[in-house]
């Protein structure tokens, strides 16, 4: 399949939020409606104006079929190394099982190398065992526990 | 113990890197020497110049006895919610077991609320079972797997 990747624009937001909501866990916490809740638009502009955040879409011809957010963070640890974090990876139901997810992650790995990161990381909900295997196949190792506290 | 918290300055770097290196896992990957490797100083300035990153030190009188880095990230997920991430939490050997670690994390939780985050998160190496219990006692839940890929 011929997939290309680019930075998301505001015009992609509708497709992106649709994908975020069209998901077992996302359906409980997202709100896809017309017009889109203002909070998504505000977050989009916060991401876009931050040079250390990139919202990436995968496109099949002109159609958005995947999304992920990359965050690049300078840390003191590892002798002052930068890390890349992947979050919010989703693919459209219409292309599931066609390798778009793998292509997204491979793109993220290359982008993280370009940005000089020494590691790329992500967390995946323990309720998504298939996602864990997917990332392990791509070379990630589940060396850490991922903890959250709702505020 | 009377502990106060503030943003780290370049003058704190020596104490901070000493703490990062004086650790079971850190001793394998950090490099504490005089003068400090340039990479730490460069990372410090990258953190300092990023409004979404805060390097926080805990001080007992004038002595730095703890450190952590907070990163605030805007995401589209959770209806465009901001998250806080804690990384690189260390306390000085001289105060271990005196609650400085808990105070650091409680400070981070309050700071994340001030910044309008809906969740605060971190990952902890599975080789640190004590750290996992420490965070669970503070209310964090290990709902996620934390995956890394070295680049």
Describe the model:
2 copies of one chain form a homodimer. By secondary structure, the first copy, chain A, is α+β, with helices and mostly antiparallel strands. Helices cover 34% and strands 34% of the residues of chain A. Chain A contains 6 helices and 6 strands; from the N terminus they run βαααββαβαβαβ. Chain A has a 5-stranded mixed beta sheet with strand order 1-2-3-4-5, with helices on both faces. The longest helix of chain A has 15 residues, at 100-114. The mean pLDDT of chain A is 96. The interface between A and B is large, with 66 and 67 residues. Strand 5 (119-125) of chain A pairs antiparallel with strand 6 (141-150) of chain B.
Features of this protein?
homodimer; 151 residues; 5-stranded mixed sheet; globular
Topology, element by element:
Two copies of one chain form a homodimer.
Chain A: E1 3-7, H1 13-21, H2 26-29, H3 38-48, E2 53-60, E3 63-74, H4 77-80, E4 82-91, H5 100-114, E5 119-125, H6 129-137, E6 141-150
Parallel strand pairs in A: 4-5
Antiparallel strand pairs in A: 1-2, 2-3, 3-4
End-to-end C-alpha gap of chain A: 42 Å
Summarize the helix and strand pattern of chain A as letters: EHHHEEHEHEHE
Shape category of chain A: globular
Computed over alpha carbons, the radius of gyration of chain A is 15 Å
Question: Can you tell me the residue ranges of chain A where pLDDT is under 50 for at least 5 consecutive residues?
Answer: none
Number of strands of chain A: 6
Specify the helix fraction band of chain A: 25-40%
* SS element count, helices of chain A: 6
